[in-house]
Structures are given as C-alpha cells and as structure tokens.
Design a protein that fits this description.
With about 750 residues, the chain is of the alpha/beta class. It is built from 28 helices and 24 strands.
C-alpha cells in the first residue's frame, strides 16, 4: 500500500552545501542551534527567527541551498526584528571560515602525542587550569592542542584585521611566523598570559570581544557624580570574565546617597553575566539617583554546579548574587543623606569581589587605591568583622607623592605588608625611569592589581611572559621578544564590548611584554649581562612597534614593557616568578585540589604524596618536591635594599610601565622601610612589602627541605598520565599571581 501522507519536511530543500562545497542533508534544527552558539542569542528567540527563515526557504521551492544563503536570510530576519548586535555577529561568521588562519597539518604532526619540558608542577597546573574541555570527545585538551588554538587564534586576528582594512597579507609568511611562535611557546621561551591560554582562539572571543583576553584593568570612581554606577559595573563585569581590576576611592564626597523612590517594579535577572551586572546597576543607581529598587526575581539563574558554556567553569547558583545585593543595600541605606565615603566605595567593590568568588568557584583580584592621608582607608582591615566578611577581597595601596612623610605608612606596612605604594606622578611623567620624562601617560589614573601596568580609567592590558633564563644568548632572546610582542599586539586589534574601554585602548594600544625568572637569569647569565639584554631588548621592541604598527595601520603602543609578578604561568616551565627570589634551593611545593577532581588518581599513581587538607574537608593537599636549578640565594638571604635596587634597575633599563615587586623583609628590617621609600621614591613607580614570618600552619604552600629529603621524595616518582582527565577547569584568573590575587579560603593558611 502506498503511503500518501504529507509532512512539512517534504517542502524543505533536500541538501545544504557548505563553504567547502560539501553536500549534506538539510536539517532545520541546526539553524537555531548555530545561531544560538555563534551569537549567544536566546535559544527560544533563535527558534522563532528560524521559523520565519524556513518559511522563506520553502517559498523558494529549491532542492539545494548554500549555508551562506541561509546566513543571509537569517541576517535579514535579525535586522527586521531590531536584533542588530546578533545580526552583526552572525554576519561576521559568513566569511570567518575563509579568513581564519590554520597551521599546516604536517607541522602539527611533529607535536602530537608528545609532552614539552614541564616544570615539576607544570603538567598538572596546565591540566587543572588551562586545558579546555572538548565536549564532542569528552576529554580535555593536550598541550599541543592548546598552543594550536592560541596561535591560530592570534594569527586569525591579524588576518581578519588585514582583510577588513584591505591591507597586505601573505599566508606563506604568516605560516612561517606562526610556526616559530608555536615552537617558542612549546619550548617555554615565552608564554601568553593565563587568560590567553584559556580563551584565545575560542568562539567566546568572536562573540564577546577581547575583554577576557586581557589580564587586568582599572576603573576610577572620580567621576561618580557623572557616571554613577558605571565604575562598579565595569569592575563586576571584568571580574566575571577573569580580569583582575584596580579601582580608586576618588569619588568619595562627590555625590550624596539618596533615598530610593517608593514603587512596585520587578526585575527578572537573566541567567547571564550581563544580567548580574544589570542587577548591580539597578541597586546602586536607586541610591545614587533616587530611583526605585526593583523586586529581584532569581528564578532564571541556573543552580549551583552546572557547567557554564562559552567562558567555561561551573555555575555558583544565585546565592552569591543575592548576598551581594542585600549587603550593598544595607550599606547604602544606612548612609542616606550623607556623601558617599571612601569606605562605602571600598566595601561595595569588595562585596562585588566576594560575589565573584562564588563559593570558591572563582577567585577574585582587586586592588584598591586610596589617598595617603585617608586614615580610615589605610586602617580599614583592622576592622576584623568586615575584614572576614568582605574586606579581604582587595589588596590596598595608596597614592604617594615625592616628599611624603612615610612614617605612618611604614608602620602599617611593618605589621602586615599593607598598604602598597603607587607614585602616580612618576607613572604619568616617565616611561622608563632611566629616560627623560615624556608624559605619554598624562591621563593615567591607576594600576592593575599586581601594580605592573599604568592604566587610564576603563583601560585593560594584555601581558605576555618571556623566560630569559631559558635562553643561551641575546640573539635567541631577541627572536623570542618578537613573537611575544606579536601576540600582545594582536590582542589590541580586537575590540571589547565596552565603548569606554575601546575609546582608551584603540588610542593607547598598551602592552606588557614581561620577563619572569629574572633572578634565575641573573645566576645563569650574570646581572650585568641581563641589564644589557634589557637595554638592547627594549630598543628592539620599540623598533618592532614602529614597523608592525605601520603595517597594521594603527597607533604605536603608548608603553610596551613590564615586569609582572607571575605565578601560575611560571609553574609551567618551573622558573621562579617575576623578579622574586626562590623560597630555597630544595623545597616542597603544596597545591590544593578538590576531592572530586579526577586528577587525584593519576597523581597518586605517579607516586606523589597526597593527604587530606587540615583546613578544608572537601580538599586534598599534594606535595611536589622542587629543586631550583640556578640557585644562589633564597628570599631569606637578600636585604630589602638589594631587592629594591633590582626593581629600580629593571624600571630604569626595561619596564616603561612598572615593575611589580613584593619586597620581603625580616623583622629587624622593618625600621628601614621608611628609608627605602624615601630613597626609591624617584626610582620606582610602585612597590609593596611582605613580612617574613614564622606562620606555624600545617601544610604551608612552601616548606624548605634538605637535598637528601628531596632525593628521597623524588626517587620513586613516575610520569603523571593525565590523558583521561575530564575536570572542567575554570581558566586562569586575573594576573595569575599569588601576590595580587586574594583567595578567601587560602588567606588564613598563607597561600
């Protein structure tokens, strides 16, 4: 019997032809899925758009249709619905596949199935922090795949920029250049920032812009009487994208907190970063502008533990957001009729940081900059109740000026290391402190959480790390500088989703080519030799910037070099972080891992010691024996004066931004802090201090051991097999340094 039944599917084209000319069966459901995936448009709206597009396709009465034609029909429908943002994102993808840069498969085969020269904690750190989960294959990336994604993403940015502006582009030259960059990263000559290892080359960047590729940013509250909640919104948005942020308290006294209007309005908070930020805006503007406070509805926010598609990580549920909004309202309600104070600003920003920590799902990096005469700000962490509630969320520094009486500040530093010091006038006037004042940064307003980047308000920065101790000659190091520069400059070609940020970054094109393992390089190559490398390398980078800025038809970068404190990134090759001295020649390095992690079994199988965390019931502690190859002296053996001089020399010969240094001091050196600040106030732009104390805690992050103990712990270790791990990493956060990141759960145990 013949089946004469009819279905709507009979009217569809039979085949769709993709950009490669391949013919596949036409599937209606794929249109909405692709639209949602590429633009982030709500799936329900995407399905409604698809319905209209399908009606038009049926009206064509054709058997075959190209993917590009489907895209054009979708773009028309999005335009008609006023969804221009999503139309632009979807239209961009029409030619993106042909624009995208890919490395040669023959070249890639050389690295498949191999491992680089990891440091003692390198491979585990990489798998835990940077390897993205590949949904289709149910596994995490291998390092060769991460580098491929990063390098192809970097050169795709360059290529798209050139195609968009009709500038010269050579695929063959780019292929040779990209292969060299790949090799440099594989051999740990340089590394992109943790942000780049996690996000570069992902669809998230194409959809949301470059904000999440940048390490750090800054937002000033000085114009709070004009921009109201804007600085607070920026800080929350940036932190949720993994960007560490600095802020100031200059808005204190500039606006009076008002009583909100009475009314009955509701706000259903969308399950998105934008939705959380909008709720923050509504609560703050209610008190700054006297608007109504909405009744917040949290039902759309996904529950805790669910994966976050796109950026990655695990959802925290609505509880942290509820707590933040409630606490901010309590602060502002109690201050109605009074000018906003520096502590109000500090507390609101810290509550934002606490919210983003999200029950230990994420971490937070903030730096608060206050006036050097604001005693309430300087002593804010002496309020233990508020310290343990939320004021732990930022490292605090003060704006200092030459000639300041540092006595009171030095006394505070001697106790707990805060506040840090930032000489804004030096940052505005100088590039390298060894050169004449150029006032390039006359609009500078602050710094990032680690203090190495001068920044204007709403500006971001992308940092890359070179490892001079892994080079045997200046010529080799010079070649590395080229590719580190190329990565960082490429990030400046991509706009963010913040207009205020684009207005600054497109003008400044600020970069941060850093060195890490500097003390190790002093031991290997000699201190004077390294300063010579700095001088020659800086001039070479300036020449490169003139050449490549000309090719790309963009402004030269306002500043190019820096010294970041490093941290997690330096663990991959196993070099000491930044310009800091190692803990000791032989030591145990402990890291903490969730008991739910599938990293624990392979670590156990490789012979590493694993035990329960004495402070957290859901965590284990893993011990790694470490030997510093190029060891001369530990941080306990070097005076505060020598550490300050190291920073001053790198500020003179290398960094036109800043040198991030945390000077460690012995109890008997505390009385000298004031004199160090007086002597170096015209040689440095920023500095912070940390007392060396006997902490007395179990399972400390670092523990000095003997050579014999190291050999005993290392004797039976085997390679760690991590190919089958499936933990969903959340990516490196912020400036990837323990010195600028504040982790609430670890703050009481010193690491």
């Amino acid at each position: 019997m013949t089946d004469n039944s009819f279905s709507l599917g009979d009217l569809y084209p039979k085949y769709v032809i993709n950009s490669k000319g391949e013919k596949k069966e036409f599937e209606v459901s794929s249109i909405a899925k692709v639209l949602n995936k590429e633009t982030g448009l709500d799936i329900n709206i995407a399905e409604k758009v698809t319905e209209e597009v399908v009606r038009k396709i049926i009206g064509l009465g054709i058997d075959e249709i190209s993917t590009n034609y489907i895209r054009e029909l979708v773009c028309v429908e999005l335009t008609q619905r006023g969804l221009n943002k999503y139309r632009n994102l979807f239209a961009r993808a029409i030619n993106l596949e042909s624009i995208s840069f890919t490395l040669d498969e023959v070249f890639i085969k050389e690295f498949k199935g191999k491992q680089p020269d990891w440091g003692p904690l390198g491979q585990i750190t990489y798998k835990r922090t940077y390897a993205r989960f590949i949904e289709k294959e149910g596994r995490k990336e291998d390092f060769w795949e991460t580098i491929r994604r990063v390098v192809e993403g970097c050169y795709s940015i360059q290529k798209e920029h050139c195609m968009k502006l009709s500038l010269p582009w050579s695929d063959s030259k780019a292929q040779r250049s990209a292969q060299t960059m790949y090799q440099k990263i594989w051999n740990f000559k340089f590394l992109p920032p943790g942000r780049g290892l996690w996000m570069m080359g992902t669809e998230f960047i194409a959809r949301h812009g470059s904000m999440s590729l940048n390490n750090c940013g800054f937002a000033s509250t000085e114009d709070i009487d004009l921009k109201y909640s804007k600085a607070f919104e920026f800080v929350m948005d940036a932190l949720m994208l993994g960007v560490g942020v600095g802020f100031d308290t200059k808005g204190a006294g500039k606006i009076t907190i008002k009583k909100p209007q009475e009314g009955d309005i509701a706000f259903e908070i969308p399950d998105s970063r934008e939705g959380w930020v909008e709720s923050l805006k509504l609560i703050i503007d209610a008190y700054l502008l006297g608007k109504q406070i909405p009744e917040f509805d949290y039902t759309l926010i996904r529950s805790a533990g669910q994966p976050i598609r796109g950026f990655g990580g695990i959802a925290s549920g609505p509880a942290p957001l509820k707590g933040m909004l409630m606490n901010i309202e309590e602060i502002l309600k109690a201050r109605i009729g009074q000018p906003i104070s520096s502590l109000d600003i500090l507390d609101i920003m810290n509550l934002i940081g606490k919210c983003v920590v999200s029950g230990n799902v994420r971490r937070s990096a903030e730096i608060a900059l206050g006036d050097a005469t604001d005693l309430d700000f300087i002593t804010s962490k002496q309020d233990e109740e508020k310290l343990y509630s939320h004021r732990w969320a930022s490292n605090n520094s003060v704006f200092a000026v030459k000639g300041l009486d540092y006595s009171f500040i030095a006394d505070q530093v001697a106790v707990n290391g805060e506040p840090g010091i930032f000489w804004l006038d030096n940052a505005k006037a100088y590039s390298r402190m060894g050169d004449k004042p150029d006032y390039k940064d006359k609009k500078a307003a602050g710094v990032n959480p680690c203090g190495e980047q001068t920044l204007e308000s709403f500006e971001l920065c992308c940092l890359v790390e070179t490892f001079p101790s892994r080079h045997d000659s200046y010529e080799e190091f010079k070649e590395t500088l080229k590719y580190a520069y190329l990565y960082s400059k490429s990030v400046t070609l991509v706009n963010t989703h913040w207009q205020e940020t684009n207005a600054v970054m497109l003008k400044n094109r600020r970069m941060g080519v850093s060195q890490t393992g500097i003390i190790e390089a002093f031991v290997k190559n000699g201190r004077r030799t390294m300063l010579e490398w700095c001088e020659k390398g800086y001039k070479y980078l300036q020449d490169l910037d003139e050449q490549y800025s000309g090719w790309l038809c963009i402004p030269r970068s306002i500043k190019i070099t820096t010294v970041k404190p490093s941290g997690t990134v330096s663990l991959l090759p196993g070099v000491p972080p930044g310009i800091h001295y190692p803990h000791s020649e032989y030591y145990i390095r402990r890291i903490r891992i969730s008991k739910n992690s599938d990293l624990i079994e392979p670590i156990n199988n490789a012979g590493y010691f694993v035990e329960d965390d004495s402070y957290s019931p859901n965590t284990v502690v893993v011990e790694f024996p470490v030997h510093e190859q190029y060891f001369e002296r530990s941080k306990n053996d070097v005076s505060i004066w020598e550490q300050a001089e190291n920073a001053a020399d790198y500020q003179k010969y290398w960094s036109d931004n800043q040198v991030s240094i945390t000077i460690t001091f012995q109890p008997h050196e505390a009385s000298q802090i004031k004199h160090v600040l007086e002597c170096f106030e015209d040689k440095l732009k920023s500095v912070s201090f940390l007392p060396i104390k006997e902490h007395g805690y179990k399972q400390a992050p670092y523990e000095e051991i003997t050579k014999e103990k190291y050999e005993e712990m290392s004797a039976n270790l085997k390679p760690v097999f991590l190919d089958d791990t499936k933990d969903r990493a959340i990516g490196e956060k912020f400036c990837d340094s323990d010195k600028c990141e504040v982790n609430f759960d670890d703050k009481t145990i010193g690491g």
